[in-house]
Amino acid sequence: MTEFKCYKCHKRFNVTEWMWKCDCGGMLDLVKEKVTFTPKSIQTNLPTMWRYYDVLPFTSVATTWKSITMGEGFTPLVQLDDDEPNTFVKVDYMMPTLSFKDRGAAVLIAKAKELGITKVIADSSGNAGTSIAAYARRAGISCTIFLSDSTSPKKIAQIKAHGATIRSIKGNREDVAAAAQQALKEEKIFYASHIYNPYFYEGTKTYAYEIWEQMQTMPDTLIIPVGNGTLLLGAFYGCKELMENGVIERIPKIVAVQAENCAPLAKAFFKNEKTAKPVENAGTLAEGIAIAKPARSAQILEAVRATGGEFITTFEEEITSARVALADKGFYVEPTTAANYAGYLKYKRMSDEVIVIPLCGAGIKTS
Ligand SMILES: *Cc1c(COP(=O)(O)O)cnc(C)c1O
Ligand SMILES: [Zn+2]
Q1: Given this model, what pLDDT does residue 2 score?
Q2: If both were cysteines, with which of 96, 125, 190, 318 could 70 make a disulfide (CB 3.0 to 4.6 Å apart)?
């Protein structure tokens, strides 16, 4: 049986629609029966992340997802260029709403639909809100997205296009989350949060499955941008499942990248702390990872440490020039993705070290 388990006090709960954190304030994780995966179980006729249906949190007879998928996932994995034959980019901006968030949103909204949900709330720095809005609309679920009034206008336009109600909040990312959570107190609404809802990570874990299938092995290192950790934790969970099933022998080293101007996790990592203390966001172009108070900080730090990984922070000038450098190779990305590439450029690799970096968000999402 599937249950929620509090990361902090380990209490277990039946999965209900309305619960999004533990009474103690701790974050919820999904406890599942052992996920079994064999390469043979891949539905190779599906050119999407749903080819790993067997490891997704749906029963074998469930069909709701079929009317909700927009073909997300199974994104290209390509060599960066001939000069760097051991570096591969996973082009995760090739998604219905142009960011990797579609992996999580597709699973989360399919699950919400299955539960009979008719209305959802989410808060976001932009891309998660866009993704939730798009899938909710497709599922016929009404949707309210809380955003900071400083969100990129192009992302706001994208959300509006999907008919979501926008609640623009004056203040920082934490004020936006607080406003959404206040609304949840006033009305019983499903919290389609990419941060709190454990089902989102069931979607992002396909990132790891795809890399494994595309390489027929795992790289030495995954370099991943991190704000709230939805891709990082998803990748880690996916790797863990692959290892538990004997498909891989070890989990790649996870190198996490943050913007120097908003790097609570990197700071905690270097100070050997178990959780991150909130920081003041000093302002960064990398809006997608500008998270001053990441709710799953303990899990993110634990995951990076468990893989023998590390943190890298990048400066604003490095982000700007990394965006130009990627465009010079043909890839037009948003600044948050450039921040991750800048982290890669600073990373001291070993000779022959095989590295995969995600291109998380498309360039046209921002100016
Ligand atoms: C959401 C996002 C990130 C960061 O993901 P987290 O879950 O906050 O760690 C990075 N890049 C892009 C383009 C994003 O949309
Ligand atoms: Zn608890």
Answers
A1: 85
A2: 96
